[in-house]
Amino acid sequence: MLDIKTFGPQGGNVLYKALSHPLIVEEMKTLEAALKGKRVAFYDPDNYAPTLCGLYPAIQPALILTHDSEQVGQADGLGGQKCAIVHAANCDVDAILALSFEDAKMHSRLGAFIGAIPLYTLGIARLPDMFFPYKRPYLDKCNFATNFAFFRETEHFSTRLVTANYWSNYGAESLRYWLRLYDEQGLILAEWHHDVENPAAGVVIDSQEVRERFNLPHFTGQLFIHVIGAKGHDVVKYALDSFGRKGDPSLSVTHDANAWPSMRFATLPAPDDDEAVYLWLQNSHGTTIPSGAITLNPMGEDEHYPITQPIGPYETVALDVGALLPKWRWPAQLELRSGQHLVRPRYEIVQRGRTRIAHMNVERANLQPDPALRTMSPLLGRGFVLPFPIPNPALYESFVQPNPMSEALTHMPLRLDVFDEAGQECGQHFLGNLPRNYQGAIALHELLQKPGHAELVYDFRDGGEADGWPHALMRYRHRKTDHAAETSFGGHIFNTMMTWRNEPQSYAGPPPGLTTRLFLKLGQILDGTVLRSFCYLIYPTSLREGRAPSQTRLHLHAADGAELAQADITIQPSGSYLLQPHKLFDASLLDQAGEGGYVLIRDLTCRLFGYHGLENGAGGFSLDHMFGF
Asked: Which DSSP category does 313 fall into?
């Protein structure tokens, strides 16, 4: 296990990003070499030691120095006592490491007290000045807008990352995407930058173009992304399309990776009888993952299967889940105990000549069952709601599988509420107080005979506890073509004026979140086939009373960010809408928008939620939840 402090849904520890940055890993190896064999004292004014030692276990303190007079003489966690920094020169050490990125400041502050003992700092681990176009503290979170992406260009598969310059909404003047591509062995294939000069411009990074540009062999690996010049927040959001080539009909899409490691991940389905499930394990750090450090277990079962293969720095490994857990079959669900070695992993399902790719979700370690959820104010209506579409049942089969997404949750007291597109309730279906090891999937197409959506909500009629983090995996299959897709997400309180703690959440401010800003990429041409984008927009309401129809405006943007047109739609409370840009905007405008163009979905009256994808007109489609900013 990596004993590190990382991130959470409400923000997190920028120190982790600063110390795990691939460029910094190289410098930290130099520091490790300089301190090798030395007895080292740590001066740690900001409690950096746990994260530093977790990422770089070769650097360990023999002594802790402190400037806090009340800490002098206290246990240092090493079997000794903390020493006053002013007595450093008398300490039996070969070197002092000041855990600060401010090299000059540390030498000035400590020079009079350390005598002839060599002083090292984390100044060696600062990124070059080119990464900091704005004057702000080094550990400002926007200095480290970073993320990883699964990236593949092989004989049969391509990937494409699509997003937009949403940082211009926060005052960013120009952006540079600094990119490093790793192959399957963790070796660097290419390093380059992608400048984004125009406000609101689209961003496209295509694996085929990258391979041709750098004359690369086929690759399956990961792309490290650092957005230089970000403002407003540090979350690098994107959609990642995966395409089959040379007659392979595969088409899927997955969301951005949450940029923090976690102890556990969930929403991994066990393989069906005719499926192979491959879990893509991508080492997010510059140190090897030891044999047995990662395990899989059936959800809710104390039956652990270790991954015995060591995984090198930035290496990518495809784990055959069925081979590791041969007796477990869908709808069983699995849990990954990753020891904080991985950013959100993806899995790929191979079935009847097609593949589909999706992501696992972070399982929360900081949530406990909360009795307050049983007695929430009626001003919050049904409280937490998890909405997801039910596409036309005549064309699609749809399934939902509830997932426990916090370590402490033992049961899931849940109900399904079903609505048609007009927002009319078409039934409630109590699921029960489901156990953590629940193995089931509910057939949504049997509950509704027309297009609409369903919502998971808490229902305590049979008892049980809740943690405010309801999740589910949704699986969809085209009845005629057999093409399938799946996605997973969690619930929130939606569209209530009254708040509960940090709900209803807002992307850019305090609760209540009552506005919408969603990104929908446009389509493209792939090997002569026209792929068109779509999204299922849902107007979820925890409390329906008092809610008016949406006033949703669609802004069509060209790849250079220019706005080309607008269109208005209306969605009823608890209703939904299948948005297809090619049916709302003239073909000439869509051609002008080009690849990299997109639709920005805005609403100042309510918060909508959506699931987006591409379709090829012949029953092939992709699907995942949308992102907003």
From this structure: T
Report pLDDT for 508.
74
Helix (H) / strand (E) element for 238: namely none
Q: 113: closest CA among 34, 36, 39, 41? A: 41
Q: Which residues of 44-55 are buried (b: 16+ CB within 10 A; e: fewer)?
A: beeebbebbbbb
Alpha carbon distance 170, 256 (integer Å): 20
In the beta sheet, which residues pair with residue 341?
none
Run of H or E residues at 76:
none
- Residue located via tokens 């047109």: 565
163: its two tokens: 């997003």
Q: For the chain, which ranges sit under pLDDT 50?
A: 8-12
pTM strictly above 0.85: yes
Among 441, 207, 251, which Cα is nearest to 353's? Answer: 251
| DSSP string covering 584-602 | HS-HHHHHHH-TT-EEEEE
Residues 6+ apart with CB under 8 A from 188: 180, 181, 182
> Can you tell me whether residue 54 is helix, strand or coil?
helix
572 CB contacts (<8 Å, ≥6 apart)? 422, 423, 539, 549, 550
Nearest to 355 by CA among 270, 278, 269, 453: 278
Burial label for 106, CB within 10 Å (0-12, 13-18, 19+), is buried
